[in-house]
Every structure is written in C-alpha cells, then in structure tokens.
Amino acid sequence: MLALAPDESSRRAARGLARPEPWSGTGATGEAVWGLCAGSGKNPYQTAVDLTGPAYKCSCPSRKFPCKHALALLLLWSGGFVAGESAPADYAKAWLDGRREKAERADGDADAGGNGSAGVKDAAAAAKRAAERDRRVAGGLAELTEWLRDQVRAGLAAAASQPGHAAAVAARMVDAQAKGVAGTLRGLSDIPASGDGWPGRLLSEYGLLHLLARAYEGLDALPPGMAATVRSRIGYTTSRREVLTAPAVTDHWHVLAVRDLTDGDVPGRRIWLRGAGTGRHAMLLTFAGNGVWQDPDTARLRPGTLLHADMHFYPGQPPLRALTGTRHGAPERTGPPAPDGGIDALLAGYAAGLQQDPWLTTWPALLAGTPVPPGGGRATWHLADGSGEAVPIREQESLWTLLAVSGGHPVTVAGEWQPGGLLPLTVWLDGQAVPL
C-alpha cells in the first residue's frame, strides 16, 4: 500500500492516520473501500478507493495523488479494520458509477482488437494534465507576486501614467491557466485616476491578489471549503456532473432577481434565489455562447416566481453558487418574500461572508425600505429602512422607475450588495415583481 504513495511525507502522514479513531462510516466491497476522515474543517473528508484501478477520490484539498487519506484508508482496510458492506456509501457510489460509465464509453470507442485500456490511459493523461496545470498556475502566481512588489516599489502614481498597466501580466496569467486572476487584473486598468481615493482602491486590489497567491502556496493546509474557494478564484472549474453529485437542498425557491452580465467575453445571466423553508440563498449562473443559452430553463426564470426544485451547491464558502437538479414542478407566480431583515442584518451577513471568502464582492440583498433621491444633504440615492439606517444605491437609469413604483413609501427590494452600494434589481408593487 505504501508503495502507492507519491513521496515519503505522504507515507509518514498516512501511517499517522491509519488508525480507527479519526475514521467513521467506513466500509468495503470486493471492488471499493470508503470512509470519512476527520480533518481540520467542520466536515470530514469523503475518501474512496476503487480497488480495481486502483483509483482514488478524496474531498480534501491536497494535490498529491493518492493523498494521505486514501493511503491511510487502504492501510486501515488491509489491517482488517474496515467491515464489509453490501453497497458503497452514496458519495462513493456516485463516484464509482461515474468511473464505470466513463470506462464503458471508452470500451465502446475501442476497436475490435482493443483490450479496454483506453479508459486507464485517459485517466492517466487527465492526471498528467492536472499536474501540469498546477505547475503552470504556481509559476504564474510566483511571477504575479514579483509584479505586485514592483508596483509598490515604483509607487502607485506610476500606474496612472501607464494605460492598461496590468494588461501584460493579465496575459501572462492566461498563459498560466489562471483565468480568474487574469480577469481581476484586467479590471485594474480602470482604477488609476478614476476619482478621489483611487490609490487606496488600487492598493486594496493589489493586497487581495497577493493574499490569493499566498493562499494558493499553502493550499494543502487550508480547510476544504476555503481551498475550494481559492481554486475557484484562481480559475479552476468544477464540472456540472461533480456538482450534481453533491447533496441536494430541496425547497420552494423564490426567484428574487435577475441580472444580465454583458461585460465579459461571453454574455451571462445571474439569478438569485431564496428558499422559502430553509432561508438559504442560491445563485444560478448561465452563459449564452453563440447566442444559445447554456441552460435555457435557468435563463427563463423570472422574478416573482416560486420554483420547487433541488439545488446542488458548488464547493466553496460561503455556499452560494448552485445548479438546479430535479424540478418538482413548473415555476409559479407568487408575492414578495419576507425581507431577510434590515440594513444592519444585510451588512452583518456580508461581513460573515467576507470572513469565509475575503475576495467576495457580491452579496444577495432583500430589504424593505424607501428609495430616496439625492438631496437633503445626500449627494447620491439611498435606501432607508424602518430603523432610519440607509445605504447608498448605485446609479442606474432604472432608479426613477424604483422611485415611481414606491411613490415615496416603503417597498420590498431585491438586488446585489457590492462595496460601492446596493444595486436594486427587483421591486414589488401590489404583490407583483417589477424588474429594474
């Protein structure tokens, strides 16, 4: 078993975990072994091994293959500490079924004289590609760290004299397969000389990029949720298939707001939901490549409707982005949901989100308040709640529609809270949702 380890440190770590205490829910069949291993996070790591491969699956953030948990599980099993079971646990079964389906497709593609080894070769090639990408990303982020240091040494004023000052390093991040970082860097070009306080805003963005690069360096030591968030911010993606194997959250979901995203390479649509029973928020995201929606059913959702469905959340924290699984009925019209609370509750929720994801820039908002145009000592629009607290509203053409609908009275508003203020997307009039 230890011969499977990628290095000596993995062997030592596996020996330390090869005891019953940190494990629960273990089991084995003739072709697989699985179990839950307590780690540094709140949730235990889900570990499974396909003994016919062998092949390994673990929810820990380690990039070693196999990880110490898979090795420890094999040692535990070989030592007779894992009882036989008639069927694998759900998470192990989903993974094994996926491997089986992939192998069957590979066998179907093999020629008549083949021996079915195409699936094994594909898996080996995929592992090699993953390792190569990790190497590229690490190298690119090391260069980014040096670039950030150079910007601070040269002084922030230098950025104002260089239009598109981050374009070259953004292109380098694309080459390094860190597209999430590249997108952030491209957005930096608009900050220099963009108004009062721009040096502080630019330095803050530099600091967040530096934090992301340092977090990636220590990825193996991070809790699973944080590690998944870091990988997502860098540009790693999770397949729909993998997301749909996550536990489902079934509820009647209020469709709160829809926002079209037109500033990227591919148009997209972001849809905010809130569970009527669970109170959880969910964010659906779909894109339209070549004018065709990736998920037409999601793209057709409209505010003011209620969808009875299963939601499967992407890995990461806080859990917001989701995919719709089984629908238990068509969307139905409904009135406005009860607000989450006042402005203090909104800001407290966003602060809690920032604790889990320091790079978080968008947070769901559902408030009852009165829109107030500029005047009376305020230079911008505001939304004031019943307690007298107020937050700035981001400027947009539809604000007069918001004011007209409210008539100067409190209304229920849904939208997005961002560092620049509240972006209202939906307001309710007489129980009917009005998109803004």
Describe the structure.
The protein is an alpha+beta fold and 436 residues long. The protein has four domains: 2-109, no CATH class; 134-220, no CATH class; 246-333, Beta Barrel (OB fold (Dihydrolipoamide Acetyltransferase, E2P)), CATH 2.40.50; 343-435, OB fold (Dihydrolipoamide Acetyltransferase, E2P). It is 37% helix and 25% strand. It has helices spanning 8-17, 68-78, 90-109, 118-154, 157-160, 167-175, 179-187, 198-217, 224-234, 240-243, 296-299, 343-356, 399-406; strands spanning 23-28, 32-37, 45-50, 55-58, 248-261, 268-275, 281-289, 292-293, 305-313, 322-327, 332-333, 363-372, 382-384, 390-392, 411-418, 421-429, 432-435. Strands 5, 6, 7, 8, 9, 10 and 11 form a seven-stranded antiparallel beta sheet that branches. The protein has a six-stranded antiparallel beta sheet with strand order 14-13-12-15-16-17. Helix 4 packs antiparallel against helix 8 (198-217). The longest helix has 37 residues, at 118-154. It is globular. Mean pLDDT is 89; it is low at 110-116.
